[in-house]
Structures are given as C-alpha cells and as structure tokens.
Amino acid sequence: MTRVLITGASGFIGSHLARACLVRGDEVAVLTRPGSSLDRLQGASGIRVFTDGYSDVAAIKRVANAFRPQVVLHTAAQTKFAETDDLADLNASILQNLSTLVAILSALAICDQPPDAFVRTGSIAEYGDIKLPYVETSRENPRNSYGASLVAGTQYIEMAQPRLPFKAVTARLALTYGPGQSEDFFIPHAIGRLLRKAPVFLHRPHDRRDLIHIDDIVEALLLIADAPDKAGSVINVVTGDAPDMAAVARELQVLTGAAPDMVSSAPPKYDPILLVSDPSQMAERYGWSAKIALREGLERTVQWTKQSQQAEMNA
C-alpha cells in the first residue's frame, strides 16, 4: 500500500487518479482549494480530504506531516486564461500555476518526511509553435499564458531538482478526454449538445490534436509514480496521432445518433494548428503505449454521458 496525495482531485484527471489509486489498494488523500466541489469523488469512500489550498507553505507542510505521502500527484492547474490588453492573464497564470507549484514543492521539501516521488501533470501546450513532432528535449515556444506558465513550472522543477529530497517529474499530457470531463472542453461539449439535439459549430475544423483517453493517462501516471527515476525530468504521455477535429466531430455525430446537419464548421480563416508529440520515451522506458483507440474512447464517453443525462432526468 502506497500513501498517495493528489492535488486537484476535485477536477477531471485528479478524480480519476484518486479512484484508480483506491482500486489498487493505496491509501489516498486529496488536497483541494477551500470550497472546491467534491462531486467527482462521490461514492469513493476512504479518501482523506484536506482543504488547505495550494498557496500557504505552512498549511501544505502541515498536510504533508499529517499524511506523510510517499507519492504526490500534482494535477491542480488552471487551463484557460482570457487574453487582455493589460496582460492580466500573464499575472493570473503565474499565480494560479507557477506560484502554487513552488509553494507545494517548498512545503514538501521541508516537511518531516518528504515523499519519494512528485509527478506533475504538464501539457503538450508547453511546446507551442515549434518543429513537429514534439520531443522532450525541444526548446519550447508556448502560444499562450497557460503554456508559458507550465513551461516555467517545468524549468523551475528542473532547476530545483538538486535541492529537492525527492524525484520530480513533469508528464506532458496530450489533450485528455473521457467520462466526467467538463463541457468547457470540445469533446464533452460536442457530445452533450448532440445528445440534447443541439447543433455543434467548429470554428477551427482542420486543427489536428493528439487526443488521449483518461484511462490511458491514469495508467501512465501511476507507472511514472512507481518508478520516477526512469522518466527523466520531462516525459510525454501521448498517442503520437493527431486526428482532424472535423473528423472527430463527424464520429461523434454518428455515435450520438445525431443528424448529419447538426455539425457544421466555419470556412478556414487560419492555418490549421497541429499538436502531435513523440510517444517513444514512454514506450522505451516503461513499455507503455496508449491502448484505447479514439473511436472506442469516444464511444465510452458517449455512453457515460447518456447515462449521466438519464440519471439527471430521473432525479
């Protein structure tokens, strides 16, 4: 049994990780911001909950001393920052994603019994506008505040690693989807609307994005947490494929049983964005590759959404 502390467990990836750790017999605690909803953890009994947030080093240290985690999975991050003329999004991304990371690292470094491993979820958004496919040694050129704040966090971890009493790894994830994800993201947004017989409009239909199912992400993150020294400081957790978003939307239209005219798109105004990364390091170091094909993953997500909508109607 491993003692696992998960930040961001009220969110999509963190909640799936918490449930998976319980299933494999780990002792699980979650650290959330005060007032965070724990709806995603309903029915997951045996989880110890701390609501001390991510900014107070002393409070986080008290959590670490109380629980004594052997593994910390840091999934807490804000993914969207509206760009403003006064550049307020830059400061917000630093406060939400970088300052909190540094506070957690600081607390873990000085707690009574530091963990063995710290695994942080980064993103392929860190790479940005560079040569494809993205490889871990690439010089990043992020396109937005979110990507820049994550790159800064990655580099802070690498800089601080000689001073940390635990191994720290950034796992750069492909665009993750699956049951329980917010409709703020494209796949659950499209599924929800199509099942409600509402139209879906694609503003950038020919962008190509590496999409990965949450179950594959969870499996990979736990492999890294169990043997962090294999990973290096940064490792991609990706499929290596990048389907066209218009093709994904058409697949969802078929899987939901929606009429073909429920999906439409704008004429291309911009060059398509291609997000595809090299998966070879996870394969070589852990023998891991994504197992859930896109159609299967989309079908699972559609079925979960149907059941969720039906449960809401019956409530």
TrEMBL record:
Task: Give the NAD-dependent epimerase/dehydratase domain ranges.
Answer: 4-237
Q: What's the short name of a Pfam family annotated to this entry? A: Epimerase
Per the record, the pathway is: Bacterial outer membrane biogenesis; LPS O-antigen biosynthesis
The Swiss-Prot or TrEMBL record describes its family as follows: Belongs to the NAD(P)-dependent epimerase/dehydratase family.
Q: Provide the protein name.
A: UDP-glucose 4-epimerase
User: Can you name the source organism?
Assistant: Ruegeria faecimaris
